[in-house]
From TrEMBL:
Pfam families: FMN_red. This is NADPH-dependent FMN reductase-like domain-containing protein. InterPro entries: Flavoprotein-like_sf, FMN_Rdtase-like_dom, NAD(P)H-dep_reductase. Residues 1-146 form the NADPH-dependent FMN reductase-like domain. It comes from Lactococcus fujiensis JCM 16395.
């Protein structure tokens, strides 16, 4: 099984990075885990005509993987701005590598509650139109007091924490094995204009744009906004 693990911050030092490298080492016999960084990805902008090479590289790696692990810090009850920008890149354009991709969320923070708010925020984003990922339900791994949780070698030290991480990861492996074959058996629906009658009835006469490409339905063709 090939997995990609995404460090959800552009900070030079991160306990979330340490957590993913520990998982790579700990679960090496169950899966090949490729830890990837987001620090070299530019800020998302719809004005960009072509996706940068760094975005294309990440998109291709995720598309080729059986599943994705995201380790997120928590900044102001939310994910980092850098991670949000990456998710916007990955939900923009013709290729959507996160769609129907099995995803596991983990996180580490200095506080007692771990990254509980950031993880809920991330789940909400991954469930949005244009992403539509398959996120592992439950199995929340919330590593609090991260500065006290690792040895000098970068290993987790608390046995109960290790046991819970193993439990969550084993469930994710099973989740991936169920989800990926099931995707191939799903019926393909015809995307026909005649089948979109509900869009015309629900639009109240306002121009309709598909938010799957940009994550936004606010911009009109002339550059104005419905909500300016």
């Amino acid at each position: 099984m090939k997995l990609v693990a995404l460090v959800g911050t552009n900070a030079s030092y991160s306990y979330n990075r340490k957590l993913l490298w520990y998982m790579k080492k700990r679960f090496g016999q169950l899966a090949q885990i490729d830890v990837l960084e987001i620090s070299d990805l530019p800020l998302f902008s719809e004005d960009t005509l072509d996706r940068p090479d760094s975005v294309l590289f990440l998109s291709n790696k995720i598309a080729e993987a059986d599943g994705l692990i995201i380790s997120t810090p928590e900044y102001d009850h939310s994910i980092t701005a850098a991670l949000k920008s990456v998710l916007e890149w990955l939900s923009w354009g013709d290729e959507h590598p996160l769609t129907k991709k099995p995803i596991m969320i983990v996180g580490a923070s200095l506080g007692n509650m771990g990254t509980v708010f950031a993880q809920e925020n991330l789940r909400q984003i991954l469930n949005s139109p244009g992403i539509d990922a398959f996120v592992l339900p439950g199995n929340q791994f919330l590593l609090g007091r991260a500065s006290q949780s690792f040895s000098e070698r970068g290993d987790l030290t608390e046995e109960k924490t290790i046991h819970w991480l193993e439990h969550c990861f084993n469930n994710f492996v099973g989740f991936v094995k169920v989800i990926n074959p099931a995707k191939e058996k799903q019926p393909q629906f015809i995307d026909d204009v005649s089948e979109q009658w509900w869009i015309e009835d629900a639009s109240l006469g306002l121009p309709f744009e598909d938010d799957a490409d940009t994550g936004s339905t606010e911009d009109l063709d002339d550059g104005t906004s419905l909500f300016a």
